[in-house]
Amino acid sequence: MRLLLLFTILLVSFAGIFEVLYLNSVEKLEKGSHEEKEKIAKGIELLLFADEKLEWKFYGKTMILSNPKEITIENFNAEKIGKYLKISAKKAVFYTDEKKIYLYGDVNLKFLRRGKSFFIKVSKAIVDLKAKVIRGYGLFEGREGNKLLKGNGFIYTFDGKIFKIEKNVQVSINSN
């Protein structure tokens, strides 16, 4: 009986010690995560699902993940699954609450338009994942086969039904 009592006392003591150690380590981890300024991942791929279906693949050389509501991606690349739509930019900032991706520097879009490959280059764009629209800002240049399009700002819908140049439309055709 004494042995059983001694064993119970030891067991309760060890449980108390482990509880204190565990709480201390959790507290230190929480303090450390608040002090850490940036969480950086390199060579990463993010997958975005909607209704249990893969919608987008995002790639980047580096991603800053300190704030889960604002993910910064350097050397950004994206691919829309099920559609021929590819996007690249020097930098992207993904606002997860808004479901918008702000693209900066050498923004390139490749997609199919009327069955033909279409390429656009612009300095800034916003991908609105809710509205399923890409808006380009500032001067852009687009190429479709032998046609060269230039303008100031554009709107493109993910389904490819709308591609609208906002203003200053210029079209030139290479006859070669």
Describe the structure.
This protein has 176 residues and is an alpha+beta fold. The protein folds into 2 domains: 1-36; 40-173, lipopolysaccharide transport protein A fold. The chain has one helix at 2-35, and strands at 40-50, 53-67, 70-80, 85-95, 100-113, 116-128, 133-144, 147-157, 163-173. Strands 1-2-3-4-5-6-7-8-9 form a 9-stranded antiparallel sheet, with no helix packed on it. It is elongated and about 100 Å long. The mean pLDDT is 82.
The helix content, as a percent range, equals: 10-25%
**Main pleated-sheet profile:** 9 strands, antiparallel
CATH architecture descriptor of the largest domain: Sandwich
Strand order in the sheet with the most strands: 1-2-3-4-5-6-7-8-9
Silhouette: elongated
In CATH, what is the class of the largest domain?
Mainly Beta
Radius of gyration using CA atoms only: 26 Å
N-to-C series of helices and strands: HEEEEEEEEE
Alpha carbon gap, first and last residue: 101 Å
> In total, how many domains does the architecture comprise?
2
Question: Which whole number gives the mean pLDDT?
Answer: 82
Count of helical stretches: 1
CATH fold title of the largest domain: lipopolysaccharide transport protein A fold
CATH homologous superfamily grouping of the largest domain: Lipopolysaccharide (LPS) transport protein A like domain
Number of DSSP strand runs = 9
By secondary-structure content and strand pairing, the structural class works out as alpha+beta
Q: What percentage of the residues does DSSP assign to strands (E)?
A: over 45%
| Model regions low in confidence, pLDDT < 50 over at least 5 residues | none
